[in-house]
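Example A, followed by Example B.
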Amino acid sequence: MTRSALTALMCAGILGAGVLVSAPAIAAPSSTAPAAGTELSGKTVFLDPGHQGTAHSENLQRQVNDGRGGTKDCQTTGMTTLDGVPEHTINWKVSELVRSSLESLGATVKTSRADDTGWGGCVDDRARAASESGADVAVSIHADSTSTMTDADKHGFHLIVPTLPIPSAAADAAQSEGGRSASTVMRDSYVRAGFEPANYAGVENGIQERSDIAGPALTTVPLVFVEMGNGSNPDDAAVLESSDGQLKHAIAISTGIIDYLLGAETPSTPADAATTTAATPAAAATTGAAAPVTTAPSGAGPAADGRSALSRLLESVSPYVNSFGVDGLEGLATPDNVSSVSTFAQGLLKQILADR
């Protein structure tokens, strides 16, 4: 095992073990709880990292079905952030983190493209692949742009939902029921993760309704269409471009998917909702205990009531990323922590730490 891989394993272990032992109110073990790594067994997720790499010869302007009786361009190149990072690469990296996380929990994950170099399919091809996958939910991952120059005024994430009704009865049923529900759950996950809803383009409370996006009008499984942020905005772009920021987006997307797939849990009792006090981050480096984790009060509305225990556990990783960054997480690991490796934490963090 390489040193970087060993470090990744150790970091995943202390995070997973620390969160598990310090937050019993979030995910207390029970005799009926599924075994670690099987929580999402039987669930299928289709991930569509938007756009495609540059190593292709397809005609992007070729007209394809738009799902509403017209046509539109097969594909677009996607935006480029202020520092020159292409959207297709950001989408790909976030999607891979989400895939790794979901697979580590037992889900079957299918994707629209196999890499970040070649072709990923026209918009109708991707919708067809999502529909044929029979997924419980499909998630199309994108980032937005409002200008080829700096746009400091427009910022934030949003979820695109289709104008209803959709001509296809099957697509209309999927998007008016599961699609809208999954999009709302994803919006709530993003808000809990600290992301602000977009303040432009008619977005209302993180949701934007549109009739010109072909994917939702052609997809017959529930679809979530995420615009993670505005690549023209300096602050949004900095998050989208960085490994730390991509991990934060991946955590928000993963928790949203988990909440939708597993549904709401029984609301916490007042005692369960209290803050769990544990060792400080410095102590965690030597004792294996986690930093303090705060759970949401039971009366906090959608941010508490619509969440699964598993997603709360996943979300508990966020304070470590915020405090230490991805590189800083290595400081929390010691050789003594290797035996504490958590299957759950490995799936989310091992890949990104090993790659740095």
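Example B, a separate protein, is given below in the same form.
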Amino acid sequence: MSSRADTDEAHATGPDPTGPDPAGPDPAGPDLTRPDPAGSRVAEAHVTAARTGEAITTSALHAAATGADTFPGALREALNRRGLSLERVSERLRVRGITISQATLSSWQRGRSQPERARSLRAVEVLEEILELPAGALRSLLGPRRPRGRITPPDAEGAALQILGADSVVEKALGARFRHFNQETSSLMVHDIVKVGESGTLSAISTTNVLRASRAGADRAIFVLSFDDEAAEPVDIRVSCGRLAEATYLKGLKSLVLEIHFGRELAKLDTTVVSYAVEVSPSETPATHYERWSRTNLHEYLQQVFFHPGALPSDCHRYVRDKVGAPPRAQRRIPLSASHDVHVLTSRCKPGVHGVAWDYGTGTGGTGDRPG
């Protein structure tokens, strides 16, 4: 079984990790929501939408964010809020022993270049103090070193399309909501735990996701888990951090849509933690890989796969894809621990598809994956 997930989506077991995403004409399926009484009407609305084949909707998502979830955007926003000119900021940096020209600051806020050298990174830390931002608010938005020259980052929808491709399962599952898919938040850290049962099939997935608000008022996030094997379906969903507002399984798309509310509205650049676990019915084929796709840079991504003692793999390795369906690269073997698990810890995780694959030996097929 394969499971794919963005810090927004996941995908679990299937026989071919490089094959096309499954799709189906009928998105209707059972609603697994178990909300508190106050959320029952919202759950009913989702069930109705799913059964009629219309786009699934909950209470309206906030309008599209202008989105300062990039370093240039956050810097511009902070400068405007403080009412400081680049000249004054440059002078305040100079008083603290750091020389950064107005031209360089302008280049940073326009996205034409980004701080990379040690002196520039130190300047970013001081900028956070000058602009009265939380420690790490700007620096955590910096991606990996990149070529010099003007770069225009894609918007949230464009970034997702670069990784998923057009007409993906995620886009079909979300319908109109895909356009503004989690634009109000971005993931900083993600921890996935995948459990493989005695039969070698996926038995459970749990995820802890640290999210940061890119604008004030963010109060929810959406996650999509897709399954390759039709026999593998979610049978139990538990949310330990956050409140489950929607849990709709779209049988035709073999995808589970979760909407989780934070329980409060976040201030801009505020953080929150979302944790959920999904138990899965036995699939027909053993799991052999698990992937997470991510459209943005993650501060840190921890991927763990636990195997039943009766279904230990003969070989495990990690890999990366530039996008869903692309050939795997950067493959490297990873050892099985005494606890019967393997793990991959990636710091400053770049956009793309990050996976773990394993082999049971001759005669065993199937896959497990999840995108982020």
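On Example B: The helical segments are 40-52, 71-82, 86-95, 102-110, 118-130, 156-164, 169-174.
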